[in-house]
Specification:
The complex is a heterodimer of chains A (281) and B (321).
Chain A (H helix, E strand, L loop, with lengths): L4 H22 L4 H6 L1 H11 L15 E4 L5 H10 L41 H14 L6 E6 L6 H12 L5 E7 L2 E2 L2 E2 H4 L5 H8 L2 E6 L3 H13 L7 E6 L22 H10 L8
Parallel strand pairs in A: 1-2, 2-3, 3-7, 6-7
Antiparallel strand pairs in A: 4-5
Helix pairs in contact in A: 1-3, 1-4, 1-10, 3-4, 3-9, 5-6
Chain B lengths: L8 E3 H15 L3 E5 L3 H4 L2 H6 L4 E3 L4 H12 L4 E7 H4 L4 H10 L5 E5 L17 H6 L5 E3 L4 H13 L4 E4 L4 E3 L14 E4 L4 E5 L3 H14 L4 E5 L2 E3 L3 H11 L2 E8 L4 H12 L4 E6 L9 H7 L4 H18 L1
The chains are: A alpha/beta (281), B alpha/beta (321).
């Protein structure tokens, strides 16, 4: 379960290659945020979470993860496949007709590893809180993790949930915001400023941590630190600082790669830049 | 006309409160959530007996729906409670994605549906909720007629696996169904067998339909009255069987005439047996402040209007023949 850093890095590289190939394969999807969050997903599923790829929807006795910003489905699907939830060959069906790998994740197609649909933004934190409350009622000591985009927290429902969780001492919950500063229409600073995120979440009563989201060692360290702070009355929020498109130089830091696919030439360039690995789907 | 009498009147929301308590006693996975309307939803008895199984979300309905969806993932059976407007229109997308599309076992329980909320006025009187909920794939839509039936329905949906919209109201209405009834989701209830016109009613308009049936009987018109407590899945078999006999239809509901029970019935008839149909429903308008009785009259939802609609439907049938 607990992979070493070198193995984690190698897995992350494989997942990044999957991401660009999946998005290229159907000429649609969201590579930028997916690449930026790959280290987080890899650390979560191969080092931090106690989880079972045999997959039960109720997830009793295991850690659960909810992806709230569902558009970064490529990184989620590739991670699940590498973690053994389903065959990696299925990644080639991403966003194609009759696939279980819908553009945005869904339970509707019974894909193992997915416990809630996401895509319409802002809903995942509430769902995670519900799952965390159910764990408490069940006497289940395992944890609930979430991921959100920074643009996503412009949705009002996030702040309803932000107010609820500390009031109700939901301290078995570790949430993460991917702070990459980009959204479809441009930098968040231009579209709608998020302000001082640490101050905001602390003011709501969360225990807030920072993370270098494209530094695998830091990702593992901060996630473990977050786990050690559970059970102390407060929900935990990690501000994960990443670069959109990390790993592919022509995609890095540009909102233009939020939701477009590379052409054949760009795919080749991207794959060349990502470490050559075996075992791609 | 079969005789229906009553000795007591109660609000259907109290039936929900009583049913929730019973459902909680029968199954310890049942949990309740409320967005700052515990008194209105009659949830206090449940909270007193199962405080740890109650979640107060504050005035944050979207979060409530999401939390309910999440709790199902730990095996819970969540009942959410707020007014019908805030249970549906306000959180339509949350229900669509996190409950219906995700196929979560959430029971969305809505009080103060329709015009009879009364004096609060149109902001609170949603008349589109049945339509909104029935359009969601996989959603079951239930609108019981009195206290006893609402209690039975509440207990029945706890046993049923899948998302449900349960709609009830604020006004006090006659209790005319059995206290120990078994509620069958999707199975229409024959109130009175008749030959001249089919009256398909839902919610507390079933009582108005009974009053209308008595008036029609005095004029020699034999009305068949069926309580369509489940609007989705609709009991098409019962509808078609009745219409084959009577040849004309009145639908009665406290809802916009667009998208409610009437349209569900019309769709079945259009495909299988085109039949003259009259709607007793709010004619595509918002409501306004007033007493429930005043509003029922002004917006054409009472027994008198059902009688008039029945005569019109029969006239159209006879012209057609």
């Amino acid at each position: 379960m607990k992979a070493d850093l070198q193995t984690l890095e190698k897995t992350a590289s494989q997942i990044r290659r999957d991401i660009v190939r999946m998005v290229h394969g159907c000429q649609s999807g969201h590579p930028g945020g997916s690449l930026g969050c790959t280290d987080f997903f890899t650390a979560l599923y191969f080092s931090v979470m106690n989880h079972d790829p045999k997959f039960n929807m109720d997830g009793i006795g295991e850690d659960l993860f909810f992806l709230s910003n569902g558009h970064i489905s490529p990184v989620f699907y590739s991670t699940l496949a590498h973690a053994g939830y389903f065959d990696k060959a299925e990644l080639a069906t991403f966003r194609k007709l009759n696939s279980r790998l819908q553009g945005h994740p869904t339970t509707h197609e019974h894909l193992p590893g997915v416990r809630i649909a996401s895509g319409s933004l802002g809903q995942g934190l509430s769902v995670a809180i519900g799952a965390a409350l159910a764990k408490k009622l069940n006497g289940d000591k395992s944890l609930v993790f979430t991921l959100h985009g920074d643009g996503e927290i412009q949705e009002g429902q996030i702040w309803e949930a932000a107010m609820f969780a500390p009031h109700n001492h939901v301290d078995n919950l570790i949430s993460t915001i991917d702070v990459n500063g980009q959204q479809i229409d441009g930098p968040t600073k231009k579209v709608l400023s998020l302000g001082d995120l640490r101050a905001k979440w602390e003011a709501f009563g969360w225990d807030v941590l920072d993370m270098k989201g494209n530094d695998m060692a830091d990702v593992v360290k901060v996630l473990e630190e977050a786990k050690s702070r559970t059970g102390q009355g407060k929900p935990i929020m990690i501000l994960m600082h990443t670069e959109m498109g990390y790993g592919v130089d022509f995609m890095v830091g540009s909102h233009k790669w939020h939701g477009i696919a590379p052409n054949d030439e760009q795919l080749k360039l991207a794959l060349d830049q990502l470490e050559e690995t075996l075992g791609d789907y | 006309m079969k005789k229906y009498t009553y000795t007591d009147k109660k609000d259907t929301r109290s039936g929900f409160g009583a049913g929730l308590l019973e459902a909680g006693r029968k199954n310890d996975q049942v949990v309740a959530l409320c967005a700052d309307l515990v008194g209105s939803l009659k949830m206090q008895d449940f909270i007193n007996e199962f405080p740890e199984r109650f979640v107060q979300t504050g005035i944050a309905e979207a979060n409530m729906i999401g939390i309910a969806a999440g709790m199902t993932i730990g095996g819970k059976i969540p009942f959410t409670g707020t007014f019908a407007n805030f249970s549906t229109g306000r959180v339509y997308d949350q229900i669509r994605q996190s409950v219906a599309y995700s196929n979560k076992n959430v029971k969305i329980c809505a009080s103060h549906a329709g015009l009879t909320l009364g004096e609060d006025g149109a902001t609170h009187q949603i008349l589109e909720d049945i339509g909104l909920m029935k359009m969601l794939p996989g959603m079951t839509v239930i609108n019981p007629c009195d206290y006893n039936q609402t209690k039975a329905a509440t207990m029945a949906i706890a046993e049923y696996e899948g998302p449900v919209y349960l709609r009830f109201g604020r006004p006090v209405v006659p209790i005319f169904t059995d206290a120990d009834q078994k509620f069958e989701i999707g199975k229409a209830w024959m109130v009175n067998e008749g030959a001249d016109v089919s009256i398909f009613a839902t919610g507390h308009l079933v009582w108005e339909a009974i009053l209308a049936g008595e008036k029609l009987a005095e004029e020699g018109i034999d009305a068949e009255i069926i309580n369509i407590h489940t609007i989705k899945p609709l009991d098409a078999e019962a509808i078609l069987k009745s219409v084959a006999k009577t040849g004309c239809v009145v639908t009665a509901e406290e809802h916009n005439r667009l998208g409610g029970l009437g349209d569900s019935v019309a769709q079945v008839l259009a495909v299988h047996n085109p039949t003259p149909q009259e709607y007793v429903a709010v004619n595509d308008s918002f409501g306004e402040s007033g007493t429930p009785a005043q509003l029922m009259t002004k917006y054409g939802l009472d027994a008198e209007h059902i009688v008039a609609a029945a005569k019109k439907a029969i006239e159209r049938k006879n012209k057609k023949a």
